[in-house]
Amino acid sequence: MAYERTNIQRMQGYVPGKQPQDAGTIKLNTNENPYPPSPNVMHALTTVAAESLRKYPPPLADGFREVAAQLHGVTSDHVIATNGGDELLRLALTTFVEPGQPIGVLEPSYSLYPVLAEIHNSPVVRVDALPDYSAPQEFADTLNAQGVQLTLLVNPHAPSGALTSVSSLVALAKQLKGVLLVDEAYVDFVDPTLAHNLVPHIKSMPNLLLLRTLSKGYSLAGLRYGYGLGHVDLIAPMLQKTRDSYNVDAIAQRLAVAALQDQTYAQDTWQRVRAERARMTTALRDLGFTVPASQSNFLLATVSPLMPSASMLRDELERRGLLVRYFNAPGLTDKLRITIGAPAENDRLLTALSTCLANA
Ligand SMILES: *Cc1c(COP(=O)(O)O)cnc(C)c1O
Questions:
Q1: Residue 1, Cβ neighbours under 10 Å: how many?
Q2: Residue of 263, 262, 250 lying closest to 83 (CA atoms)
Q3: Alpha-carbon span 56 to 53, nearest angstrom
Q4: Which of 207, 233, 237, 312 has the highest local Cβ count within 10 Å?
Q5: What kind and span of H or E run contains 299?
Q6: Whole-model pTM?
């Protein structure tokens, strides 16, 4: 007999991208930053004191929250530190959604959202994105009509990289009756000339919560560190009630501070990724793929009907030691999501793709 709750028995669980531990594979499948973390971070790691491991860490990660608050021009009561951005998603569900009540998502988007809803026993109201991956006009009305208490929206959009403007997001937050969590996992890679910044709106919008992570922009996916930015009334219950007592460990807090404090280094990696993103967009289009403009660190390439299928190309690339992401999901079966790597990795991908297409 099974002891699991029925909703847990029913669910499949999140399927992560492949994480091979050998150094030879070129990983363009899970959107890591191709550059190492800042030397500041590695230095902080060598200076971790035994005493800081013997004792419990600062429970609210006050030092980190102060640094993050300064970076974003807010006070630290607008900030919560989390064990990866993923913990913030889970906290948002447990804090703002009555079990059994629905959450809202745009389709397609991050495949973890419906998994977290299943754990919480919440149905998911799915609204199809427009062909440019933005939300349709009726998005808010549809979600409000279904009693949605939390909407999860990733921007820049995953898996396309499309960017929704600050004004559209503010308008959406005003229309929605529930909380709007804008998942900004990839926002560091947005072209700075667009001056895209939603943070100034968190003080006046009582239902706007932003997710940030150090996994992508700061090259620290292995550290598991993220944070939320939002109205004090959203942050306070998560900070004081629903969070695990010591949700971010002492080493992680130290390294996260060191990472945020080296903005020059991080921004340099973002700029390199943007330059390669532009080059790869053109190169993939030249090979015959349809590739929408991306403001993220990945591209969504649609395979033409003249080519082998997307899943076949994924397999062919894997045989050549290159991992890219294929989603067997509605609207995505003819597409590959390709992370922007370092220049030499991207060259390897282009060469391998040319070979696969020539042999087909
Ligand atoms: C990577 C990512 C996150 C957060 O990931 P963590 O590694 O848990 O910080 C959140 N949303 C999306 C869409 C992501 O791709």
A1: 2
A2: 250
A3: 7
A4: 207
A5: strand 298-302
A6: 0.97
Q: pLDDT (tens digit, 9 = 90+) per residue, 131-147? A: 999 999 999 999 999 99
Other residues' Cβ atoms within 10 Å of the Cβ of residue 234: 25
Q: Are 129 and 159 in contact (CB under 8 A)?
A: no
Q: Which long-range contacts (CB under 8 A, 24 or more apart) does 3-9 make?
A: 5/121, 7/118, 7/119, 7/121, 8/118, 8/119
Span 169-205, pLDDT tens digits: 999 999 999 999 999 999 999 999 999 999 999 999 9
SS3 275: helix
Measuring CA to CA, which residue among 186, 188, 236 is closest to residue 209?
236
Give residues with Cβ within 8 angstroms of 40, minimum separation 6: 258, 259, 261, 262, 265
1 pLDDT more than 70: no
DSSP letter at 66 equals H
d(CA 28, CA 34): 9
In whole angstroms, how far apart are CA 92 and each of 11, 89, 323, 340?
A: 20, 5, 32, 30
Q: What is the sign of the dihedral through the CA atoms of 228, 164, 33 and 326?
A: positive
Q: Assess contact for 330 and 13: CB atoms under 8 A.
A: no
Q: How far is the CA of 44 from the centre of ligand 1 (A)?
A: 24
What amino acid is encoded at 4 in this protein? E
Residue 310 has pLDDT above 90, yes or no: yes
Residue whose Cα lies nearest atom 2 of ligand 1: it is: 185
pLDDT at 23: 82
Q: What is the best residue among 116, 216, 297 to mutate for testing ligand 1's pocket, by most ligand atoms within 8 Å of CB?
A: 216
**Pocket, ligand 1, Cβ cutoff 6 A:** 31, 84-86, 110, 154, 158, 183, 185, 213, 215-216, 221, 226
- Helix extents (H) in 156-215: 166-175
Between strands 208-213 and 103-107, the pairing is unpaired
